[in-house]
Amino acid sequence: MSSSSNTPKAPLPTWMRRTGAALTALVSVLFVVLLLQVRQQGERIQKLQDQLQTLENDNDLDRTNALEEQVRSTAERLQNLEGLDQAVRNLRNEQASLRAQLRASQREPQFPLDDGLNPKPGRLPALPPLPSGQP
Predict the structure, then answer these.
(1) Side-chain half-sphere of 28: how many Cα atoms within 13 Å?
(2) Are the C-beta atoms of 114 and 124 separated by less than 8 Å?
(3) Which residues contact 55 (CB under 8 A, 6 or more apart)?
């Protein structure tokens, strides 16, 4: 065994102890500054994420409003088309009815003449003969 292991070690010089304390304090201050910067950066990131979410929500709302307007417009056009379809059906029915009336009126004369002997209700009487040009 050596004698150096049994002998008490000499204390460090004062300048070394002060330098060690100063370095420890410096490392502690740097650690606190680093923690503050990380916290601030985290807050900035959270703020930016919130702003991004707000912008995305605004864009989604705008798209939703545009789609709602398209659906509303399409529904109005569809209602107009349904109204026009009903009007066309009504006109077709009216046209068919008028054609039927026209065919019925063409089958029998509207004002048939009678033979002059037996006037019938709803018929016009026969015209008298035209006078001849001789006296």
Answers:
(1) 6
(2) yes
(3) none
Residues making up the chain, counted from first to last: 135
**Mean pLDDT per 10-residue run, the chain (135 residues)?**
61 92 97 97 97 97 96 96 95 94 76 56 70 68
Distance CA 51, CA 44 (A): 10
Q: Are 120 and 114 in contact (CB under 8 A)?
A: yes
Structure tokens at 23: 């370095």
- 123 CB neighbour count, 10 Å cutoff: 14
The contacts of residue 111 (CB under 8 Å, 6+ apart) are: 123, 124
